[in-house]
Amino acid sequence: MPLLLVLHWKHGAGSPLPITPDDPKCEMRHQCPGNLTFQIRNQLNQLNSSAPELFTYYYKAQGDPFQTNLDKLCNPNVTDFPPFHANGTDKEKLVELYRIIAYLNASLGNITRDQKALNPGALPLLSRLNTTTAIMRGLLNNLTCRLCRKYHVAHVSVSYGPDTANKDTFQKKKLGCHLLGKYKQVISQVAQAF
Amino acid sequence: MALFLTLWTVFLLALMHFSTCKSTESSDYLVFPIESLNTFIRSNEQCLDIEWTVNPHAYTLNLKMIFQIDIRRTTFSNIVENKNYTTTLIPNETLQWCWHSALPLECTSHLVRIRSMVDDERFPEFKFWSSWSSWWKSEGKDSSGQYHIFPVDKIYVEEDSNVTFCCISRTDNEKVDFSYEERYSQRTKLSPRTTMFEVNNVSFVRRGGSNAFCKFNSDNSNIQGVVVYITGVIEEPKNFSCQTRDLQTLNCTWDPGRDTFFPEKFIPTNYSLFEWFSQKKVNCVHRNWCTWQLTSDIQDMYNFTLTAENEVRKRRVDILFNVTQQVQPQLVGEISIKHVSETEATLKWKIIPNQKRLSFLCQIEVYHDGKVIQYNTSRSQFTLRELQPYTAYSTQVRCCTANHFWKWSEWKSKNFTTKEDVPSGALDVWRIVEPVSMGYNVKIFWKPLPTFQANGKIQNYIIVMKTLGEVHREDIFFSESDSNSTEKIIDQQSYEISVAAFNSVGSSTPSVIVVSGDTENSAQNITEERVNGTNDGIYLSWKPDPAKAEGYIVDWCNYPQDAVCDFQWRKFGPNTTSAIIRSAAFQPGVRYNFRIYGLSTKHEAYLLEKKTGYTQELALDCKPIVTVENLASTSLTLNWKDNCIDEPQYGFFNGYHIYMKSEVGGSCDQETEKQNFSDNIIVCKYTVPDTKQKTFNVKKLQPKSTYNFEVKAYTGGGDSLGSFIKVTTGTPENSNLIMTILFPMAFFSLLLIIGLNLKIQWVKEKCFPDIPDPYKSSVLSLMKFKGNIHQATLNTSDCIPDAIEVVNKSEISKMQGSRTLLMGNEITKPAYLYLLPTGKDALDSQTCICFENFTYRQDASDSDSSRQIQMIPTDPTRSVGPAEHLLNAEKDYIGSLDNIPAGEASLNYVSQLAPTGAISGDKGSTSSNLEAAPCSEYKMQMVMSTGLALSLLPEDDRPISVTSLDQLEKPC
């Protein structure tokens, strides 16, 4: 499981918690940079611009029938994907963005792990997966700072997609393709909302 | 007690009876039908695991039975497997058999039935098949109502094998498409929902595997897939062997064979070692080696099975060995050196495994001076003997097991140096004695002792000089260790000089020579001889010393032209009288001087011979400049100047070569050497064997020929450079010719002229009188030739002059110069005074020939002989009568004379000859007339004064030397 899953998972957590001055997450907020909004926007733009390419590299690396059946094998049909409301308040959007990025970050970790085993020679794909994961980690940190500093939100309950470790190989490929298709679709909407 | 025994007997009898009855019953019914049947699917092995039971009594009897197993797919299928499974029943052991199916077992339902038969030797009479069990059904996934593809998940397949897939639809008879790397697959409908696809001879495509997938429904809305990984076939491990270095750990290695295409972590090929005696197993981390911990002193024999397996295949290889015979020992720690002396050293080392049950053989190699000496020992130490003092040695040691050779250990090395010892032998000493003002300067040389004689580091040399005269004196000097010479001044006495080398231990044996200036004085009388070099060096030979020398010494300088000449010497035994002197310093073109000494028993040296020579002579570095003197038509003298000298030079200067090349070719005379070149040029070579001679006469040259001469100095190494000169020989000597021929001729000519002048009158009378004698005319001879011998003398009365020519002397001269007299109208001719009438008819009928007698002309006395002139009239109007003709002629002539200066006119005598057929030039046209009146005689000659008034033809009416035929006929 990705590290974030362990760090962020708390049993029973489901909604933003009230400000807790003793929360260690927000005690570190003095270390957050000053241009958080700008950085978050830039990171979202980075993800948005690289998402189509990542998606393309992914389905090409999986071979046939993925390239010829994108609508069936890679459609953005992810049932438990966290919602995003572009017309919500800034705080709500930040919280929803946090959940989405946390979900994506965990899923990208699974995809990266699976692809390292399934396609060890697909270096361009693995490189882009690593880059995207790194940007998401930075974005999560910035979102944490933003929520703490501006809205004093120290904790956000998150959910994750299914763990693919026990799935069969073809299913791993298919789930990864669905998720990256969803990621490409969602990150475009989110980037526009910020 | 009796009661107990009675009851026990009864019990046994009853038991025996029961057993007998049972056995009898069983013998009648030894048929054990299947009592229970069950199946399980092991998907990862594609194994249908079948388990069944029979009556327990069969187990107690440990019967050997045959079970016939039928398997079919679905109720409509034929039997796909009919297996006879034989086993011996063991109590509490489940009867089980695994059926491997090519088709994934989940694809459809499988039905199994079994029957049995006793196949035991104990009961051969009961071999009857039992009844079949009822069909036992193993359900497939085709009734699940879901879309499936089987096999599921990733599957591993060896390349070139066949793979069977099945696609299961949710409902009956759905449209199903299957694809695998665009390969053809054979489709088989197994059931309304299950379709089987067979792909044959799959091949490796990529490490990431290939997708095999099923598309269901007409719009392909559902896709189920599986990833297939193709692996190479695991090869049986080769060269499997095990050895130990310490009898504690066993190291086994093998060659795993070719790669099976997969990264190890992705689809690993697992290697494991299983040891049968100990029943232990180790999973190997690496694919080509593995370690095994030995149990010391308990087990020597090992029986290993190496297993290589992956998801698809398993390979095994066995090895059995005694571990004590597969020991490669190792030397631990450094080799120690003990007891190093001048000539000995002891090596000591440590071997593992250090166990008494093992013995070792060790090999020692000692390196020194590029040579190696090898020793063997079974101990762990060895003493090296007969070593050289103060010498560095390099040693190395390796060992192996002695009782059973397996492998050598690695080499262990050690270097050491033996201790110093007293120098052995004596120095090789020689000297140079040169006279100086105070006596003689003695330079003493010695050669450093070789290492094997120095036996240590030489610290200094001691030189002891002792007089041999009546007064004994001894001087001792020391020289540094790096020196090899010293220099002393001695007087006229003889000195005994001894030289010895010292190291830290002691001194070498002194070398003694006796030096005296007298020996060098005798060298003045010895002439130097030339010697020839060879490819190896310079060959020297000398006459044996009559005084029976104890030995001979040859000395020379390696660099004779340098201030430090690198003095060298070699000593020879008394029986040696020749040697080839070699030196790496010898260079071609350098003259080396050798002195050969005899050595007496009293260590006195005396000069025997002097030699000089080259290893290889070269041409001289000079260029003679040549000039030519005394150039003649067949000889010349060549002179040249040069700077060619005998020393220092590159060879023995022997003289000059003169090369002569003629541009017109030719041969060489006997004095020269003829050289033919490839371009057919011939060069003649003269040899002047005198280096002092600077001139040379070349003879026997060709006159008016060009020669090229070149003069070169020559040595045994060839010719020097030369300069060309081009010489052309002169014409033959004309002065002699003049003196011998022309001068006498001129002299006699002069005498003749003088004589003629003195006798001019006589000559004139004889040769050209003023009035020639007609009787002596040559005409007479002509007449004689014609046969008219009676008219030998010309009769002047027979001819009538017909014309008189009046000649102006000056004009005659001019006209004679032009040689055109009477040859055309345009040319001025002598005027003729016609004395006879002329006419056309006469001319036509007969033509006469007139001879002008030049002897009557003053100006023509030196002219040619009389000429034949044909007079041809050109103007017909001039054919008039004689009188008229004469008048006209007179008239014309008077007119013409008016133009002649007084005194220049003179008389000419004209002779007229009658026409003669033999002389006529127009014989054909005039033959008839000539026959009628032949005209072959001279006509009368007349002398006419120039002052006489005559009628002459005008000049422009000529030629007019024509006479009337009528007038000519009669007189003739």
Automatic annotation (TrEMBL), chain A:
Family that this chain belongs to: Belongs to the LIF/OSM family.
Record GO terms (molecular function): cytokine activity; growth factor activity; leukemia inhibitory factor receptor binding
Function according to Swiss-Prot or TrEMBL: LIF has the capacity to induce terminal differentiation in leukemic cells. Its activities include the induction of hematopoietic differentiation in normal and myeloid leukemia cells, the induction of neuronal cell differentiation, and the stimulation of acute-phase protein synthesis in hepatocytes.
SMART domains assigned: LIF_OSM
Recorded GO CC terms: cytosol; extracellular space
Highest taxon of the lineage: Eukaryota
Main location as per UniProt: secreted
Record PANTHER family: LEUKEMIA INHIBITORY FACTOR
Any one GO biological process: muscle organ morphogenesis
Keywords: Cytokine, Disulfide bond, Glycoprotein, Growth factor, Secreted, Signal
Entry annotated with the keyword rRNA-binding: no
InterPro entries, per the entry: 4_helix_cytokine-like_core, Leukemia_IF, Leukemia_IF/oncostatin
Pfam families: LIF_OSM
Cell compartment(s), UniProt: Secreted
Gene3D superfamilies cross-referenced by the UniProt entry: 1.20.1250.10
Chain's gene name: LIF
Keyword presence, Zinc-finger: no
Name of the featured protein: Leukemia inhibitory factor
UniProtKB/TrEMBL annotation, chain B:
Membrane-spanning residues: 737-758
Fibronectin type-III domain ranges (all copies): 331-421, 423-522, 623-734
UniProt entry keywords in alphabetical sequence: Cell membrane, Disulfide bond, Glycoprotein, Membrane, Phosphoprotein, Receptor, Repeat, Signal, Transmembrane, Transmembrane helix
A GO MF label: cytokine binding
GO BP annotation list: positive regulation of cell population proliferation
Disulfide bond as UniProt keyword: yes
Gene3D superfamilies linked: Immunoglobulins
InterPro entries: FN3_dom, FN3_sf, Hematopoietin_rcpt_Gp130_CS, Ig-like_fold, LIF-R-like_Ig-like, LIFR_D2, Type-I_Cytokine_Rcpt
GO-annotated cellular components: external side of plasma membrane; receptor complex
Protein's membrane topology: Single-pass type I membrane protein
Location in the cell: Cell membrane
Leader sequence residues: 1-23
CDD domains noted in UniProt: FN3 (cd00063)
Family, per entry: Belongs to the type I cytokine receptor family. Type 2 subfamily.
Assembly, per entry: Heterodimer composed of OSMR and IL6ST (type II OSM receptor). Heterodimer with IL31RA to form the IL31 receptor.
Name of the protein this chain belongs to: Oncostatin-M-specific receptor subunit beta
Gene coding for it: OSMR
